Amino acid sequence: MTTTKDQGADHGAATGAVAAGSPASDAFAHQPLWKVRLALWRRSLGKTWGLFRENKMGMFGLGLILLFACMAIAHPILMATVWDPKIYDPVTGYSAVELQFVIVEGEPTDPSTQISLQEARLRLNPTVKVGQTVTIPVQPAPPSLKGPNPHLLGTDPQGRDILSQLLYSTRAAFFLGAVAALTTVLIATTVGSIAAYFGGFIDGSLMRLSDLILLMPLLPVLILVSALFEINMVMLGLMIGVLGGFGGVAIVLKAQALSVKVKSYIDAARVAGGTHWHIVLRHIIPNVLPLSFLYMMFGVTEAIAIEATLSFFGLLNVPMTWGIMINTAQNNGYLLSGTSYWWLLFPAGLAVTFLCFGFFLVGRGMDEVINPRLRAR
Amino acid sequence: MLKFFIGRLVQMVILFVVFLSIVWLLLQLMPGDISDTLIGNPDIPMSVRLELKARLGLDQPLLQQYITYITNFFFRFDMGVSFSRFPKDVSAVLLEALPRTLVLFLSSTLFAFWLGFKTGKLIAWRRGGRSEQFLIVSGVFLQTVFYPWFAIVMLWLFGFVFGWFPIGRFITAELWLGAPFEANDIFGRLIWTVVIASVAYGIARIVIGRVAKDLVTRERLAMLLGLLVVAAVVGYWAVNPAAKFAWDIVHHTILPVITLGLVAFGAIMLLTRASMLETLGEDYILTARAKGLPDNVIRDRHAARNAMLPVATSLVLALSFVIGGGIVTETIFSWPGMGLLFLQAINVSDIPLAVGALAITGVLALVGHLVADVLYAVLDPRIRIA
Amino acid sequence: MAMMSATTRWLRLGALFAVVAMLVTACGPSGTSPSAVASAPASQAPTSEPPASEGPTGDLGTYKLGIFQDVETDNQWASADTSQNTVWNAYFLSPMTGSLYGTFMPGIEFGPVMADGDLQPTVAEGDKWIGTMKLRSGMLWSDGEPVTAADVAFTWHTVVSKDKGGVELLGPWQDFADEDVVDNVEATDDLTVKVTYNSQPGLAVWGPGTGVPQIPIMPEHYWKDIVADALTQDDPRTVLLAASGAEAPSLGATMFKDRQAGSFAASDPNPNYYDKGAEITSGGVTWTEGPYATAFQYTLYGGQDAAVLALANGEVDLLLNPLGMQRGFQDQVKENKDLTAIVNPTNGFRFLAFNHSRAPMSDHYFRDALTALIDKEFLTGNLLQGVAFPLYVILPEGNVNWYNKEVADQLATEGYAGLDTATRRKTALDLLTEGKYTWETAPTIDADGNFTPGSGIIGPDGKKIGTLRLISPTASYDPLRATAAAYIAGVAQDMGIDVVAVPTDFGKIIDIVFATNDKNEYTADYDMFILGYSLGSAAFPTFHCSFYCTTGDSNNTKYSSAAFDAAADTFNKAQTIEEAYNAMWEMEKLIAKDKPHVPLFDTGILEFYSNRVAYPFTDTLSGLQFINGNPSAVTAAK
Prior knowledge:
The structure holds three protein chains of three kinds.
Chain A: H1 5-19, H2 33-54, H3 56-80, H4 85-88, E1 97-104, E2 114-116, H5 117-123, E3 133-138, H6 162-198, H7 200-215, H8 218-228, H9 233-246, H10 248-261, H11 264-271, H12 276-312, H13 322-331, H14 342-370
Parallel strand pairs in A: 1-2
Antiparallel strand pairs in A: 1-3
Helix pairs in contact in A: 1-10, 1-12, 3-6, 3-14, 6-7, 6-9, 6-10, 6-12, 6-14, 9-12, 10-12, 12-13, 12-14, 13-14
Chain B: H1 2-29, H2 34-39, H3 46-55, H4 62-76, H5 90-125, H6 130-144, H7 147-161, H8 173-176, H9 183-211, H10 215-239, H11 243-280, H12 283-290, H13 295-332, H14 338-347, H15 351-379, H16 381-385
Chain C: H1 2-13, H2 24-31, H3 51-54, E1 62-67, H4 76-79, H5 87-93, E2 101-104, E3 109-112, E4 123-125, E5 128-134, H6 149-159, H7 172-177, E6 182-187, E7 192-197, H8 220-231, H9 236-242, E8 254-260, E9 264-269, E10 279-282, E11 285-288, E12 295-300, H10 304-312, E13 318-319, H11 329-335, E14 339-344, E15 348-354, H12 364-373, H13 376-383, E16 388-390, H14 405-414, H15 421-434, E17 438-441, E18 444-445, E19 451-452, E20 455-458, E21 468-473, H16 479-494, E22 499-504, H17 506-513, E23 528-534, H18 543-548, H19 562-573, H20 577-594, E24 597-603, E25 605-610, E26 613-614, E27 635-636
Parallel strand pairs in C: 1-12, 1-13, 21-22, 21-23
Antiparallel strand pairs in C: 2-3, 4-5, 5-7, 6-7, 8-9, 9-12, 10-11, 14-25, 15-23, 15-24, 16-24, 17-20, 18-19, 26-27
């Protein structure tokens, strides 16, 4: 979102010239065309990577994403090796330290083995009687390393391991982000390129559509849709992708494609007898791709945030995500408990924030590579 | 200019019709009969249902149904009756909540833009400091923070731990008990004061621009004018019998506005910075420097003004954020606006009300879009000449 | 028809627990209303006592209550009609009304509220039956007008159907009006109300059940013209419901003062409250009625979190919520010396329902086997961590006057209580085998008692039983019911029955299981579901029939039993409590045997209040919210 149309356009022109492979040097003269293309592509990628590496914040973002990726991978491994599914399953697992008490009338003389009737009724239910021995589980339990089943980040109000939920949800977040971002890029690139290349009526109608979708208040529309229809993660990802892809991103990519369209090699290709589709696929789309990739990063950010918000409201029927974790804390009355139950709120809240942060930083880093003026002097 | 404005307006109306059509299509796509969705609530008596069916055109063929749906909205502002608040009309329920949402919406947008533009301008001008690094990182953080969580932390911190602001809600019941005003009247008046003050300020700025040729004088006059406007607003409310009620509303408004505004602020600041950096490389800035103009004049009059263009367009992006964030904000701060209404309607399957709230949200987005367009035209000299 | 839609509306309203609301409004007016039995009519000198001296602990100031949804009307007609019959409106509006008879909490006793003396049996007069009630003398509306029998007659004539010249109000009003049996209600003199019945009325309509004796009395002098005007319009009901009731005088402890939409509602103490200063005894507790507060304020909060913070900050005294508060707040409240937490049994139950119009759920062998497999002690004690307690009968244990421990325990044993897992499996296997079920791979129990799970159960007709969907609320909505569904699916799977738990949005469950066709019959297009009911009148449990009678308003499982219908009929026609009691337990036995629903468990209702206020009693069925926060007797704490 930090890129304006003009900035994108400048850059596209530059990379476009390289990727199109116009200056065929001697070294490449006897090699098949695809090898030349590959080598050039690799060289340009290397150069881009070099530039990106200089961007500290971008690298930090990449580091964050890698960290989350490790977390996503770690979950199935841990579940298969050290974690007993009965205890550590993010949805159905359960374990709690259980304390035994005898219910007594009045104030207990020995608080470690006795509990007052009033307290027992509050902790358990109003049917308990004096003299009864009751078991009271400690949950949500604070983080601890002790015991046979340590919960490094504690347990939630239902006695489920927070760390396991956190790791498990990472996978869901990546999955959703990937679906949404790929859909966005696929649609936006196609729409942008087609609109730019063909112009006229096609351009007009596609851009009006983009205007319209840009105007759609995304979150409210998705809330309504989730109320009208039962939606799952794939559908949600696709919807975010389609709405994002037809909207703002398509407009930006069209501007980019437009700047490519006026280059002389497009004319050359046309003169050489290239069909429309050939030109769009071979020349325009490849030149729009770097910028699409940039928007993919922002797309991931948006998708993750939207999913978390919808599940925070309890509108999505999915087993476990970061949003559901906070929703669980809310449903059990821990939402404004501040720091005393931090493990219920902060891991999930910060996970959403940092993964979005990571993708956003990478996007920004790429933006600065693409747009030299933003680089530090 | 007028022609441009009317052109955009017509375009917006057309866009809105399309938007309504999509919502209509969604309703048609729902499993079951549309009558069940829109009027099939068991507490609505059969006779009322039949009357409603005719009113909403549900007994007609599909095309006619669609036309009635659109014309009902535009010419009668009729969106049926709310299930959960029967016999109230959807439009009546929405109109009641609208001013509260507008206050939140306008103030946080203005707050975000004002603060974002100021800081963005400054950090682009003074590149490289630690403060720049810090502001950029916090800007990005604010932009990517998980908003519901952020709002909860803000409410807990400033409402409970520090106790500076009320915990949610929009008025203090004790104060308003038996008050001679309806809260909505005060809301309306607050909105009008802000709108009138902004318009007056804008017009006066233009007049000053025409009259005073000297840049420094112009700046001073503008500053004076700003103070005058603020003084006038404060003065108007100070002598107003509703002053303490207005202040009560304002006091409740501050925390949600800051929370929602801060998140939008990050994006605006980053964009202003990027845009400023772009502009600062232009030749005319070099020319201005060569002329020996003071730094702040170059920054504010030359660079910032041009850098504002993309920022103005980004209003549209910010809008969609503020609208979505508004729902979250209203829920967490117990703010009884359209967003909260929308979610409540969803939770009790009051589809007509939910659809109505969405339609009004669409109107809000469109109006915002229109404002951004006009702003763009005013700011961009090329459009003005054309 | 209308009754049915009314019920469905309540189902929706109660969205949270399941079906809250119900007759909350209905009992509301009489909820706190204390019996004037013993005490001399306080109304004889309603204003003679200075407010300050009568409070045991002095002046309370404003009594501040927190609510979670807006009070949306000031019109009493609307509040007890389906349209605005929300518990939130009732919290605010029902303390303003009064009725001749009502139920007293915490003892759940039925008795005279504004009437003079106990309700006398009806007497035959030709083919009609006549009931007579007498108002206490000297009672005044808050505007100083006398309360008369004509007000009662006016109320009845307003709510009845158009054919009888009424406005035709819906919902609870229809329960009060009982048009199918009540022929007429008239005032024979200023204080005497005469009710004419077509046939001999049972206690269900003339007694502790809902009927004319408990109809909220409306002021004729205020509403007369408005009603007359409404009757000239096309849709009188809508016109009457839309009218403002802000200026209407009240009877109860409070009277309307102000309402700011989206923020708060407020009321003042009624100087003419009919029980002002009266000493009341119920359930062994004796106290003196106030109201002691100088004002009442109902503040809207968007969520429990903000509300509990406000409670801790001293901005509010008690939070009213039909579902009680979430357990997580307990720790916060415990640390805070200014707050008190209380827990009470609820008047409700959560259950597993079978679709009786679809095989194999229609087969009692199948239902019995599945019930035998469900270890409710394990489910509540272990899986639900003791927060819930197991249920074996429908009538809540908290309803002390009606609960019969002996029968309930016997039914629990018949309902497979206290068996170990091996016995459960054996019992279920035997039942299914007896019911001629077979398996692709049969579950087996060897000589040592080791169990091997089976798969692919085949019905008695030789056809394989496919996947059975068990619809339950999602974990984010109610973790208890979601956990129960997963557990039930698990034990059924072991037995080779392919039950799959399908967590579904609450609203969608209601849409599915209460779906009706054109003729307003339930379509019952599902296999099994788990929901909860919150029940109405605790003084006279009339809900069994509405859930299980063949024509019951809420009988969405299509259960039909002639024996049950007969028992329900006996209950409804019962002339004595004993008769009704026996009939009700007969119904319970039939339910336990036939299993239209399998009651699973329930939890207590948790509430918090500020130590600034004190209540004459806090141990009361369904908590303080059930009596609207007891505005008439709340005092400042010592």
